[in-house]
Design a protein that fits this description.
The complex is a heterodimer.
Chain A (H helix, E strand, L loop, with lengths): L3 E3 L9 H11 L1 E2 L7 E5 L4 E5 L8 H5 L5 E3 L6 E3 L9 H5 L6 E2 L6 E2 L9 H5 L5 E3 L5 H19 L1
Antiparallel strand pairs in A: 1-9, 3-4, 5-6, 7-8
Chain B lengths: L7 E6 L4 E6 L2 H7 L2 H12 L13 E4 L14 E6 L8 E6 L3 H7 L4 E5 L6 E6 L2 E6 L8 H11 L6 E5 L1 H4 L7 E3 L3 E2 L5 H7 L2 E7 L4 E2 L3 H17 L1 H9 L22 H13 L1 E5 L9 E6 L2 E6 L1 H6 L9 H14 L3 H12 L9 H8 L4 H14 L17 H8 L4 H6 L4 H13 L5 H18 L16 H11 L11
Parallel strand pairs in B: 1-6, 7-12
Antiparallel strand pairs in B: 1-2, 3-4, 3-6, 4-5, 7-8, 9-10, 9-12, 10-11, 14-15, 15-16
Classes of the chains: A alpha+beta, B alpha+beta.
Chain lengths: 157, 500
């Protein structure tokens, strides 16, 4: 069940998540080395973090011809086995979010590994756009957001 | 391999359409520590004598600090320097710009960017990693800043590109024109829009995705996480989170009143801020920012870009505009045309106060003098200035920075001032730790104080101003020493951060 929950309307595109992801996984700072990627449309103030949602039926595992995509039972994260990955990009094409990123040096795909159960991006995100509830239901976060909108609407009548 | 820094200076000559690289020796980087110092040292090496801002040779320098483009909180700031059109005779001027531009510059592989020359027709610069292209910008000339930004991004098929551009005001070479990026961030008090306009440079577009390597990545990560954590827990941060800097409005005079005139018409100002708040939508923050001091404006179904309290204030109560609607319209006008809101405000105040008519024709004056609403009047005047042909302005020089040493320090390493000054963090020691983890440059607090002193001295030399190194001056014996002394008593180090 566990994955990183995203509430895009809270994202400001500050890239803290990209920086912490790149720094903690690759020991250097660059958006290109990050497993979470932000898309921006600043003229309408829309920012969208894209990160692996750790699908229940991951098409990337099914499609990977090298058997490199696998689920880590401890964290529930679906990751790429670097020893097996041949860089064919099948997982990238089959993913509904195109979440896998090509590592700029190895050219293998990389996705969110949930930082061994303590995702750092959710810790540095101060706007609440990213959150992590290991045992919970991801949809409750979004429901809470909608609840607030609804409450405001009711109150304003 | 250099850590933290890239050690490269990108030189661009717009006349020759030539770009080349220069190495910045590690010694210089250590000596000047960051953007502000690098720019000052470049100018004192090559441009001791002031150059006319309207001449092609006048350089514009952009530089970043040792932790720019990393996870360090609010490290996307850029130092900018040039000979400004706002002073006569021209004098070395510098400013700082928040946002994302600095991070992209570092990501493209440069610590410093120097622009010189003048294109023979409108162009924009496209910097993609190590590649520089001089691209045709005739189709962008005349476009407002938002449209120019989006057009450049779409032309290069990548919305992640950061664009720094001028609007029509800069093209018309209005001295208080400005550059803007991400529809919000500007480098003020320098007349950068004018300088871009003179060079026929519509925009600089950067795609910077190269990695910034670090001396001790693990320690750097821990430091940043701890700092971000401290900032988050800060009492003021909680307030900022709710209402951005607009939350400070309730506290009379805290940061608003810089000219000592006090807080006029408290009731009206309150109304003004309440009105404005209705139009604030989502948050806005700089690169790697845990604070998010800006807000976005959603006004009548159209999106306006970001707004920061100071700018709104200067286009509001500061010039007697208490109707928030007109503040938003003025802000929008400055943003889309590329005008410096602070200088526009000071000019408007003078014109409306009757002490300056320079930029307006008699017809303009006749048309605007009977408008009753201050906001409407200001808007009409500003529009006439933009569309008019008169360029005789008597603009305010940039406010003399109090040069609180700690502010200067933040400036020097291209770090966010709000984070540094508003939060009770052990700033100097944190900076030393961050710089060490990023670059391996081990500094003592005295080193830091000396660097601040040296840079101030170099700048005052460039500006031909005498710097008084006596009791009460900004050098040595004031803020920074006090801060350092205070920090010495407090031995708690933040490095011992654990994940437990």
């Amino acid at each position: 069940m566990s994955a990183i929950s995203i509430i895009p309307e809270r994202c400001t595109g500050c890239q803290s998540c990209e920086m912490v992801c790149s720094l903690s996984h690759e020991d250097s700072c660059s958006p290109a080395f990050s497993r979470i990627q932000i898309k921006k449309w600043e003229e309408i103030s829309v920012f969208m973090p894209i990160v692996c949602q750790q699908c229940e039926k991951p098409p990337c595992i099914t499609i990977c011809p090298a058997g490199a995509r696998k689920r880590v039972p401890e964290t529930n994260a679906v990751v790429t086995d670097e020893k097996r990955c041949v860089g064919c990009k099948s997982c990238l094409y089959v993913c509904p979010y195109s979440a896998p990123t090509l590592h700029p040096l190895t050219k293998q795909t990389m996705t969110c590994d949930l930082c061994n159960g303590r995702p750092l991006c959710t810790q540095v995100c101060t706007t609440g756009a990213l959150s992590y509830i290991p045992e919970g239901d991801l949809s409750t976060e979004r429901k809470k957001v909608f609840g607030k909108v609804f409450l405001q609407a009711v109150r304003s009548i | 391999m250099m850590k933290g820094w890239t050690g490269k200076r990108l030189r661009i000559d717009l006349s020759l359409k030539k770009a080349w690289l220069e190495n910045i020796p590690l010694k210089d980087l250590h000596q000047w520590l960051g953007g502000r110092g690098l720019n000052a040292s470049f100018f004192s090496k090559h441009f001791q004598t002031p150059i006319s801002p309207s001449s092609p040779e006048n350089p514009i320098a952009f530089a970043v600090g040792p932790v720019t483009g990393t996870l360090a909180p609010c490290s996307g700031w850029t130092s900018i320097a040039s000979f400004s059109p706002l002073s006569d005779p021209p004098v070395y001027s510098f400013t700082r710009m928040p946002g994302y531009f600095g991070a992209s510059l570092k990501g493209a592989g440069f610590d410093q960017l120097i622009l010189q020359g003048k294109a023979n027709r409108p162009i924009y610069l496209w910097i993609d990693g190590g590649e520089v292209k001089f691209k045709e910008a005739s189709h962008l000339w005349g476009k407002e800043t938002t449209e120019a930004t989006v057009t450049i991004q779409e032309e290069n098929e990548d919305r992640s590109i950061e664009v720094l551009c001028i609007g029509p005001a800069g093209e018309k070479q209005i001295p208080f024109a400005n550059v803007i990026h991400r529809l919000s961030w500007t480098g003020d008090y320098l007349g950068l829009g004018y300088l871009f306009g003179v060079k026929q440079l519509k925009a600089i577009a950067i795609r910077g995705k190269k990695e910034v390597t670090l001396h001790d990545p693990r320690q750097f990560l821990n430091l940043c996480l701890t700092l971000k954590d401290q900032i988050q827990k800060d009492r003021k941060m909680q307030k900022l989170k709710e209402g951005a800097k607009f939350s400070f409005l309730s506290r009379e005079g805290e940061m608003m009143v810089k000219d000592g005139t006090g807080w006029p018409h408290t009731g009206a100002a309150k109304q003004w801020s309440t009105f404005l708040r209705n139009y604030l939508s989502s948050k806005e923050g700089c690169f790697s920012c845990p604070v998010h001091c800006g807000r976005n404006i959603q006004h009548q179904d159209s999106y306006f870009g970001g707004i920061h309290l100071e700018k709104a204030w200067y286009l509001g109560p500061q010039i007697g505009v208490y109707n928030g609607e007109w503040t938003l319209k003025l802000h929008r006008l400055c943003q889309s045309q590329g005008l410096d809101p602070f200088l526009a405000s000071s000019l408007l105040a003078k014109i409306m106060g009757g002490s300056e008519y320079g930029p307006l024709s008699e017809e303009d004056l006749r048309q605007t003098e009977n408008i009753e609403d201050q906001g409407e009047k200001a808007f009409a005047i500003l529009q006439r200035i933009i569309n008019g042909s008169r360029k005789e302005f008597h603009l305010e020089a940039p406010p003399v920075s109090k040069n609180k040493d700690i502010d200067v320090l933040a400036d020097i390493i291209s770090f966010c001032l709000i984070v540094v000054t508003h939060f009770n963090l052990k700033t100097a020691s944190n900076m030393i730790d961050l710089i060490y983890a990023a670059t391996g440059n081990s500094l003592s607090k005295e080193d830091l104080r000396d660097i601040v002193g040296n840079i101030l001295q170099m700048e005052s030399h460039l500006q031909n101003i005498e710097l008084h190194i006596s009791e009460g001056s900004s050098l040595g014996e004031r803020q920074i020493s006090k801060t350092l002394r205070r920090e010495e008593h407090d031995n708690e180090s933040i490095i011992h951060w654990t994940t437990s």
